[in-house]
Amino acid sequence: MGLLDKFKDQFHTSSPSYDFPPSSHPIPLGPQAVFRYRQQRGVNLGSWFSLERWISSNVFKDSKSPGQSDFDIASGSNAKKNLEQHWDTWINEDDFKWIKEKGFNSVRIPISYFHLCGPLPEVLKGTEFEPFHHIYEGTWGRIKKAIEMAGYFGLGVLIDLHGAAGAQNPDAHAGLSKGKVGFWDKHSNLASTSLALRYLASELSKIPQVVGLELLNEPQNNSKLQAWYKSIIEEIRQVSPPDFPLYISDAWDTEHYSKFVGDKFENDFIVLDHHLYRCFTDQDKQKTGYQHSSELRNNFKNTLNNQSNNAKGNIIVGEWSASLDPHSFPPNIPDTEKDAHRREFVKAQLEIFENHTAGYWFWTYKKEQGWDAGWSAKDAARAEILPHWLGGKKFRGPPPENVKHNELSHAENSHKSYWASHGGSPDPTVFAPGFSQGWDDSLIFLSHPSGTSQIGFISQWISRRKSEYENHTGKKLGKAIWEWEHGFRQGIEASLRVCTA
Questions:
Q1: How many CB atoms within 10 Å of residue 408?
Q2: Under 8 Å CB-to-CB from 402, ≥6 apart: which residues?
Q3: Over the range 317-340, which residues count as b (16 or more CB within 10 Å of their CB) and which as e?
Q4: Which residues form a coiled coil (predicted)?
Q5: Which among 157, 163, 296, 351 is least buried, having the fewest CB atoms inside 10 angstroms?
């Protein structure tokens, strides 16, 4: 029996079996709820489908010059054979097992629009990849298999449209090597992208372990992008439920798009994706790993916290790494000391991500050739740059019922006492129901069979629960909404303090 077969019974996506603890307000939850609302701690499966030569060079062996992109491979010789061999071997069951054992609970899988041409041939119409249907017609089936395999291991999956028709950025990982952004140049490019995203949302929203769909990876920012986001989200919501998360890139303007997410999508599950790297600019190269760590802890954490507040907590870091530019290391230091710089850099990032985001995905899982503890999660783990366990605190099991009662009583008494001496509050009676629901919901996440989880998109989850509470009780919270939310958050915090180690 293979590894995949051993996990099927526990994590089969079509028939999940979850033993939820009792709730004071029992409300049915679909099998996708924990996967989509939990704190995402993940890794990117880079260069599996959307290819990058610096990560996996062998698949480029017969590509056409300049040999840097998917288009160059498709234009060369033996493309179908080389690609299918790569898709079928780059990631296997042992890889998913390693990811699970490290404590990661999700993977981000970059794909491109042309990978959908098997079930959706018209997605290629009028695009550069129109002649290559025969090459990519089998890709979508493999992507679905990858999603299924991740689910068997209890891993969530974020599908990321890494390459759109015409290319949304000038980098080769968008599918083309021309260095030009052609996404906005032709109607056929926009039509292809709309078709691809609507198809993906319709298909993926039905799969419990799919945690969301990212609309475009790192699009070049311009005056058209924000309006396009609004328009395409409206289109997608015609074919997907509002609680299916849609991720949008900040286009390297996090301040602007964090406000955009928070202001324009109050009742929709829209998540902002920021990518954090500190190895590309001249300014980055002038700082050591320790200096980067200090800057992150002392300055960037406040910036990120403000941006998270702008986005109502719906912000993640979809790509980050341990990579530092060679100039960031003092001259002539040994490799072990370089790893010390990287280790502290990673530690600072993880501290900030855990406290100020709803999730993060390391870039990338592995590289094909050579040792690279900056970019390869597998190498970084071997060098102990990544911590041994990335899954957060572990669940110790549900406590006796009197523990919850004691925690609730203490919190409620403190709440009422404080507000009694500070002018009163709208309705102190709603604090306890909020606390109780927050505690119970937190245990649902912590006891999930895929492994220890915790609520990550707290504001989004609270918004959902508030409506359910009002419908269940027939009581409108009105001005007391903050009081119920305050109790809810304290219930989550208390459960994490008591039930994890």
A1: 21
A2: none
A3: bbbbbbbbbeebbeeeeeeeebbb
A4: none
A5: 351
Query: φ, ψ for residue 384 (rounded to 5)?
Result: 60, 30
**Structural tokens at position 109:** 């899988």
CB contact at 8 A, 221 and 249 = no
Contacts of 205 (CB under 8 A, 6+ apart): 240, 241, 244
CA distance 162 to 193: 11
Q: Locate 353 and state its tokens.
A: 């991500």
> What backbone phi and psi angles, to 5 degrees, belong to 27?
-130, 125
- Sequence-distant (6+) residues with CB within 8 A of 474 are none
Q: How far apart are CA 86 and CA 52, in angstroms?
A: 12
CB 204, CB 308: distance < 8 Å: no
Cβ neighbourhood burial of 361 (10 Å; 0-12, 13-18, 19+):
buried
Instruction: Classify the C-alpha dihedral 23-11-109-275 as positive or negative.
Output: positive
Q: Which two tokens stand for residue 39?
A: 């704190």
pLDDT (0 to 100) of residue 30: 79
Residues 293-348: pLDDT tens digits?
A: 999 999 999 999 999 999 999 999 999 999 999 999 999 999 999 999 999 999 99
Task: Indicate yes or no: pTM above 0.90.
Answer: yes
CB atoms within 10 A of CB 475: 15
| CB atoms near residue 302 (< 10 Å) | 12
Q: What is the pLDDT of residue 266?
A: 81
200-204: Cβ within 8 A, 24+ apart: 200/116, 200/159, 200/161, 201/236, 201/239, 201/240, 201/244, 201/246, 202/239, 202/240, 204/147, 204/159, 204/244
453 vs 359: CA distance, rounded Å: 12
CB 390 within 8 A of CB 155: no
Query: At what angle are helices 401-420 and 481-499 packed, to 10 degrees?
Result: 140
Per the rule left: phi > 0, alpha: psi between -120 and 50, beta: everything else, 359 is: left
Which residue type occupies 182?
G
Residues 6+ apart with CB under 8 A from 382: 373
Rounded Cα gap, residues 444 and 441, in angstroms: 5
Residue 228 identity (one-letter amino acid): W
- CA-based end-to-end distance of the chain: 34
Let me know: does 247 contact 233? Beta carbons within 8 Å.
no
Contact partners, residue 1, CB within 8 Å, separation at least 6? none
Greatest Cα pair distance, the chain, in angstroms, is: 78
Q: By the 8 A CB rule, do 97 and 4 touch? A: no
Question: Residue 483: what pLDDT?
Answer: 96
